[in-house]
Amino acid sequence: MRVYLLIMLFFSGITFAQNTITGSVTDGNKQSIPGANVSVVGDRSATSTDFDGTFKLSTSVKLPLTLKVTAVGFESKTINVTSANQKVNVILKDEETKLDEIVVSASRTPERVIESPVTIERMGIQEIRNTTAPTFYDGLENLKEVNFNTSSISFKSINTRGFASVANTRFMQLVDGMDNSSPALNFVLGNLIGISDIDVANVELLPGASSALYGANAFNGILFMNSKSPFTNEGISVYYKYGQTSQKAAGTNDYNDFGIRAAKAFTKYFALKANFTYMEATEWIAADTRSMTGGSIGHANNQNYDGLNIYGDEVTTFIPNVGQVSRTGYREQDLTDNKVKNVKADFSAHIKPTDDIEIIMQYKIGLGSTIYQGANRYALKDFMMQQGKLEVKGKNFFARVYATDEDAGNSYDMRFAAWNVNRAAKSDQEWFTNYATAYQFSGAVMGTNANESAAIARNFADYNVLPAQISFIPASKGSPRFEPGSAQFNNALATVITNPDLTQGAKFIDHSKLYHSDVNYNFRDMIKWAEIQVGGSWREYVMDSEGTIFTDYDGPISYREYGAYGQLTKKFMEDRLKFTGSLRYDKSQNFDGNLSPRVSFVYSAGESKRHNFRLSYQTGFRNPTTQDQYIGLDLGPFALIGSAPENLDRFQETVNVSAAGQTIAGQPATIGMSGQNAYHNAYTVASVQAFAASANPADLKVANIGLVKPEQVQAFEAGYRSVIQNDLSVDLNVYYNIYNDFMNTSRVISPYYGTVGTDSANPSVQQSYQALAFGDRRVYQIYTNTTAQVSSLGFGIGLSKKIYKDFEIGANYNYAQFDFNQADDPSFIAGFNTPKHRIKASLGNAKVIKNLGFNINVRWNTEYLWQSSFGDGMVPENTVLDAQVNYAFTKLKSVIKVGATNLFGSDYLQVIGAGAIGQQWFVSWTINP
User: Which residues pair with 513 in a beta bridge?
Assistant: First the structure.
């Protein structure tokens, strides 16, 4: 009983010591300001205003006390509170803060945007709420310097400053400090495991090299997504979006998106937060029928037709007296259900043992189905990625450790699915034998021309059907082609996509993992003459594909990286000139170490220091990815071989020698090949093609391919930022990058037997000539560095101005180009994949009338060349218009938004091989945003 009374007295003491302060925060027009931060000066007690601008704050600080109220877009204000029943009504003045907003990413320390030493883009709460896109992540496309590469309606890859495909390994994305790139693929899967629309606090984007602070992968840009704290953003928030997508290939389909956030600060020491979102839609169907082998579309007039989004017709062979012939393929939309789903959830516990220290334990998981485009098109089905983090952070330091784990689920390669569904009906050998027989007999007996013979031959090879005149031909040993939608097709596809043996199936397995830790300490409270900070990181990759992607046939493969950095910032000339210098050293297990220095100057001119000029030089580097080093994937027409020294021996395959090779060259029926053949015993593809045409061995050229090593860049940047006459924001930047050891892939051809060389008198070299002539050769795609020096140049202009009351107009222009000497490396493919000219504009007003707002965005780009291992082509010029109107119901603490993307536009492309992007409209209802 005594213990019970002591406990009651203790909690009663806490209760009586608490002061509860209520109030509201509005602007000069008496409009409520939701999300304003209200804190007690000198104490950790804090809260934020509700949707109607009201707040309730409990604190143990004795009266009188001082409150500080801040909100993005307004001047901060302090209020003295003298009594518990005092009604606190705060009016904040508007302030042009676009360049005064605080960012952390540019220098790993808080600073105003206007003082950032490098180009930086930012989305705050207001910009996130006003986005015209269905999600805040989609809205990133409206930022200056951002170009999207859209592989799927739910998989968008960010491209800044070029040289990016869908698999953009040059770009890093951090969510609450965690790199959420795939451990196996080494690139970001959009917002699959990112942040919910109602939990995102702000987004910061650095479009250039950032290796000096963030390591190897921050090569061409880095994105920071930060979530809301449960200490300052409590309560339950919910949103629901319904809409429809419309595309020529897919038709009109429903779109649903739901999310809920719950956060509670139980005391000023302890808080919990949870998020859950679910999205479903129909895919932008990829239905490009252009022929990748030239000639007309379809097999009717092109017997070697290979449609871009038709798979199975890549299986091709040369038939004497007939020509080059390909099998009949299947459309991509027949090989997948074209449904997109994404489920995200995260849970975190936050502990504040002192005012300055916070401990965070966080778990995130993302599951879904989408489509990824790499060397092939992949249906990611029931894909899962999860992350767990422990972080301790304080005023001047942080230390975090996290792990990323992924599971490919039921994912499969759609190209292999088509090949092996075809083979389930009839083997390649039987199919081509049927074709050749029917083609030749139809011409000889029926007198048909080439196109007529080809049609008869394909009908027999596909369906075992012959004209009566040549019905004497022996019946086919295989089954007729499985038609999409038939029971035979569905059963064959179901079997193929669950089989990881790519000679019979299409499934790939991935249980790869990533372990990471990093620390940072800022000595600003200990060293006063300059701001000095140091830090470091450690990472381990563990590849576990069971031999379906990597050469991990005998168990997982792992390797490690580590790095350390230091930075000094010093202001001179009455704080007008800010110098920042940093240096980072990184070492990967398989490569020599790299130093990455950065030097920058920011000069603030003018009486109020509002004219800021910046100049920076930095180097960056990019380590070869896990795929660059350890992939060993047979794609049929060619194999991908990573260039880690041990991987050359790990990759092994057995190939079948032709009848001519056995009888004339005296070779066995099968021969073993390894990665050593690809890198050390191969000819260039162009020279083999020339040899095939001329039969002259002098045309052959040995492929001297080096093992891949880290790529380096020197980045020069200058810029200017200012706010002119208090309402015109100006941001100018220009950059020039010089790349050395630019990472590249090359295709080579290795003979099954013999030694490559130019000495035609050497018997072993002569054997290699025979192998090529008999078709005993293997095509490999290997990872290396180009000898050519590559450079890129770009500049951008960003303007923003309030033109009437709260109406704001913005516009930006970006120019980008690259340059290299093709003669230095004739086989080099740049893959710049970026338009030379881009213009974006916006017009909006969050308060047209009370509670009513709108926003309009328009984007335009010139046509540009797309190059990737899946397909090349020109991406046409595009103009895209997005718009939204929103209305706030303050009593319901709700916002209704109606929006549409690609208004009045036709389907347009961003990636050759992916689905054309159609139109989308949506209605969203957000409660307590």
Answer: 405, 542
